[in-house]
Amino acid sequence: MGALLETLEEYARANQMSFETHHGRYRVEKVLAERKTFISRKKLEYRAEFAIDDQQKELRFTESLKESGRGMDAGVGVQSESYNTLSGARKGSFEDHSRQLGKHYDASVDYGAIREAIKGLTEAAGYSFSYFVTTKGL
After folding, report:
1. pLDDT at 108
2. Amino acid 44: pLDDT
3. How far apart are CA 138 and CA 136, in angstroms?
4. Measuring CA to CA, how many Å separate 61 from each of 29, 42, 87, 90, 103?
5. Who has the most CB within 10 Å: 22, 47, 72, 89?
6. How far apart are the first and last CA of the chain?
7. Over the chain, what is the mean pLDDT?
8. pTM to 2 decimals?
9. What gap in Å lies between CA 28 and CA 79, rounded to an integer?
10. With the CA atoms of 102, 78, 92 and 134 taken in that order, what torsion angle do they form, in degrees rounded to the nearest 10?
């Protein structure tokens, strides 16, 4: 695991992503888009979480998008909201959710490429790559 973990951390840092340990798993995060005005701020973040099983030589992976915002929106009042692709509030696939958010942001990061890069690095290290829709099972 040491070499794989080091390779994944180097990849994350080289691509301006944070890399941290979180509850025995590893987390990679990147701000895809941020919009600031005088009275509000909105942010779209990509998050990938994974666990490495050395005995099975497997990396278990999941990902999500999170949009958060604070401030005043068109005179409606002060609001704060946060949701991700795993909450029940939004329907549709991961890609559907990102298309909805893309209407509000100019996001130029291809997060599918992040997933594929992590998969490629994992397989090159001799580990299998398993995708999970939620963090359950990681």
Report:
1. 59
2. 82
3. 6
4. 13, 27, 18, 21, 27
5. 47
6. 16
7. 78
8. 0.70
9. 28
10. 100
CB within 8 A of 91, min separation 6: which ones? none
The length of the chain is 138
Q: How many CA atoms lie within 13 A of 33 on its CB side?
A: 19
Give the model confidence (pLDDT) of 4-49 as tens digits: 999 999 999 999 999 999 888 999 999 887 777 777 778 888 899 9
In the DSSP assignment, the letter for residue 125 is: T
Residue with structure tokens 């999941």?
62
Cβ atoms of 47 and 23 within 8 Å: the answer is no
DSSP symbols for 27-38: EEEEEEEEEE-S
Q: Note the maximum CA span of the chain.
A: 56
In whole angstroms, give the CA distance from residue 74 to residue 18: 33
- Strand 40-53, strand 58-72: pairing: antiparallel
